[in-house]
Design a protein that fits this description.
about 240 residues; mainly alpha; 2 domains; two-stranded antiparallel sheet; 6 strands; about 50% helix
């Protein structure tokens, strides 16, 4: 444990020393209580003057003994406030919280679906098979023969788009009607349960649809400056 004076303590000690030195100088130079000596030759036979000298001497003795004593007592009284202890100061500081073991960073959230990619894929279906035109058109006035002929061409073109830009695979392997087991902890986004669903997994049921998963998406890069929200541009024919 090391004691160390505070900055203002040094200033206070210097001021007290200056005051004490100034008082000593005043006593020696000005002699406010009169001259002090016990040498009778100086005053001769003048008993009156000699008695005055004897009366002045105790006053100087009181000052030169009392002034340093008063200063010393004053410093002793305020000494605890003038000193700092480094160890105590360190203990006063709150101990830094121990860093807990680093927890594994949570996995990043899955990327949000890109709307532009969906629009781009729909644009491909429109460009190759006119799918948007077909879905937007009211087909009630047409008979089945007319619809069947149109659907055949649309189906062929859109199937080609799927084969070229998407690699699809089933979510569950099996044929429709096969018995399958849905394990505990399954992902509800990959398997949808229908029918009489009760209790806790695992569940056993019949496969109604194997589902589809896009294993790979291969969309062409869009030209710079093209509006990604455009499914199909408007066509304007300029006459010759």
């Amino acid at each position: 444990m090391q004691a160390k004076l505070k900055p203002f303590a040094l200033i206070l000690i210097i001021l007290l020393s200056v005051v004490l030195a100034a008082g000593n100088y005043l006593m020696f130079a000005q002699a406010p209580f009169g001259p002090c000596t016990i040498n009778s030759a100086i005053v001769g036979a003048d008993l009156h003057s000699y008695s005055e000298l004897q009366a002045a001497c105790p006053n100087y003795m009181y000052y030169f003994v009392g002034a340093p004593l008063v200063v010393g007592l004053f410093l002793l009284l305020i000494l605890p406030n003038l000193v700092t202890r480094e160890e105590a100061a360190q203990e006063a500081k709150p101990a830094p919280a121990r860093s807990e073991s680093k927890k594994a960073a949570p996995p990043p959230p899955p990327p949000k679906p890109i709307t532009d990619a969906a629009v781009q894929l729909l644009a491909l279906f429109q460009r190759e098979g006119r799918l948007v035109d077909f879905l937007r058109e009211d087909i009630q006035p047409y008979d089945d023969t007319q619809i069947g002929a149109a659907v055949r061409e649309i189906h062929k073109a859109c199937r080609q788009v799927l084969a070229e830009h998407l690699t699809l695979e089933p979510v569950l392997n099996g044929q429709e009607g096969d018995e399958v087991t849905v394990p505990q902890g399954f992902d509800p986004s990959t398997i949808r349960l229908t029918g009489n669903v009760s209790g806790e997994p695992p569940f056993r049921g019949s496969l109604r649809h194997a589902g589809w998963r896009a294993a790979q998406v291969k969309l062409p890069a869009q030209p710079a400056g093209q509006d990604p929200k455009i499914i199909a541009p408007a066509e304007v024919e300029i006459p010759e």
